[in-house]
Amino acid sequence: QVQLVESGGGLVQPGGSLRLSCTASGSISMYVKGWYRQAVGKQRELVATITSDGTTNYADSVQGRFTISRDNAKNTVYLQMNSLKSEDTAVYLCNAENYLFGVLRQFWGQGTQVTVSS
Fold it and tell me: In 3D, which of 54, 84, 51, 53 has the Cα closest to residue 66?
């Protein structure tokens, strides 16, 4: 089992920046890691992912504004969020997944609230 703990959320004005962190209880260097978000009344959506070789993928809505990165030595994944908009307001959740004996395993953090408002 892998436990994930997010931090770094908060209240920020439109145009501002935040950096989210997700620290794992063990090594997740070989996992696909991602950030998802869920706004009130909406379905959970993918924000960004990073693979074990560092390949990144972003939702169109955050492309060019958000950057996902990882520090394998610290078992931590980051999400740098710049030029924040009100529509970025959501609970942001960290995810790590891999296949074990052909079975997909997914691990989730508890989430951190990001509110973009003036």
Answer: 84
